[in-house]
Design a protein that fits this description.
CATH superfamily of the largest domain: Vaccinia Virus protein VP39
Number of strands: 10
Radius of gyration: 23 Å
CATH architecture of the largest domain: 3-Layer(aba) Sandwich
Order of helices and strands: HHEEHHHHHHEEHEEHEHHEHEE
Strand content: 15-25%
Helix content: 40-55%
CATH topology of the largest domain: Rossmann fold
Largest sheet: 8 strands, mixed
Structural class: alpha/beta
CATH class of the largest domain: Alpha Beta
């Protein structure tokens, strides 16, 4: 269809579409005879995604980065739209909650200015944290060969030691019934989520990496894949019966891990479960002891691997969960790999 028809269908203007074309966000074919633009269904889907992202305030340069693959499928475009809209929705919820707190403080306190400023600063920090996650490990590039590169032996420090045992323990521990919703955060290629098929659960796999999601969908079509991350889960409140995660939480900084637990708490049902298998130390002293041991034994490979990630302090995670009404159990597989299981 031509530009006027495309604009009418998308409820926008030809001028807007030309602007996005000038910015190289869309490249419709042009008739060699009259230079008229011809828009395909793929072009319309791409434009609808651009319009949706602009509607929630995303900048042109950012959109260009998000849509840098011209061969994105319909599912890819819809996933991007859903992820962006959920992030905006969560941001709006934070704003409403902050305003409610401000109103409460103005009622209680004759001079609430300092408190209001502090709440506004907290809101801004939350917004920045949700938008600031960066994939410095390039998981899109790792996706195709990820499973083949999981090495559980042969190094002085094996990050994936006890990998199979840990995933099996998580699947065994998490109690799911047929049709329960189980959310796997950082689903990767689907190795953990697939272990719940025999329980008849509906598995939703969430990952920031589009390439990981593609590999997961190819391996396990029954897993519903969604683009998202720990701090902005593309799920409504109280939607999940269980949330699981393996080898993913150590990719976000320590100050964001508790926010990630809070986001899990948001989407869990009343009797929900959390099961996290990840690289972590028992507490600060345990980390100090282990790093000293590796240093004394000249194991720089281990030290470099640990310092390149954000291994958690298990005690802080379990304390948060217990404080927020969870019954918490832990299981340690080896020096740096643990499982936390928590139930409301």
């Amino acid at each position: 269809m031509h530009i006027n028809q495309a604009a009418k269908q998308l409820n926008t203007t030809p001028r807007t579409i030309r602007f996005y074309e000038e910015k190289e966000l869309v490249s419709p074919q042009k008739d060699a005879k009259n230079d008229y633009r011809t828009f395909t269904d793929h072009d319309l889907l791409r434009l609808s995604t651009i319009l949706a992202l602009r509607e929630i305030g995303m900048q042109i340069d950012t959109i260009k980065g998000v849509l840098d693959n011209p061969d994105m499928s319909m599912n890819d475009y819809l996933n991007v739209q859903r992820s962006a809209l959920f992030e905006k929705w969560i941001e709006m919820k934070d704003m409403i909650h902050t305003i409610d707190q401000m109103i409460e403080k103005t009622t209680e306190d004759d001079s609430p200015t300092d408190t209001i400023v502090a709440l506004a600063k907290h809101l801004k920090n939350m917004k920045n944290l949700r938008k600031s996650w960066e994939d410095k490990w390039h998981f899109d590039d790792q996706a195709a060969g990820y499973d083949q590169n999981i090495k559980m032996a042969g190094y002085r420090f094996n990050v994936h030691q006890d990998y199979d045992k840990a995933l099996s323990k998580a699947a065994e521990t998490t109690n799911l019934q047929p049709n329960d919703v189980c959310v796997d955060i950082g689903v990767g290629t689907g190795n953990l989520g697939a272990k719940f098929f025999d329980k008849g659960a509906r598995i939703i796999g969430i990952d920031q990496s589009e390439e990981m999601l593609k590999v997961c969908a190819e391996k396990y079509p029954a897993i519903e894949t969604r683009k998202g991350h720990f701090l902005a889960l593309p799920l409504l409140d109280n939607q999940a019966d269980a949330i699981v995660s393996s080898y993913a939480l150590h990719h976000i900084p320590d100050d964001e891990k508790l926010l990630a637990l809070d986001e899990m708490n948001r989407v869990l049902k009343t009797n929900g479960q959390v099961c996290v298998v990840d690289l972590m130390f028992n507490d600060t002293q345990h980390r100090t002891d282990i790093m000293r041991y590796f240093g004394e034994n000249g194991n720089l490979e281990a030290i470099d691997a640990i310092e390149d990630e954000f291994y958690a302090d298990r005690s802080k995670l379990t304390e948060w969960l217990a404080t927020n009404g969870y019954h918490v159990e832990t299981y340690q597989f080896n020096t740096t790999l643990s499982m936390i299981y928590a139930r409301r």
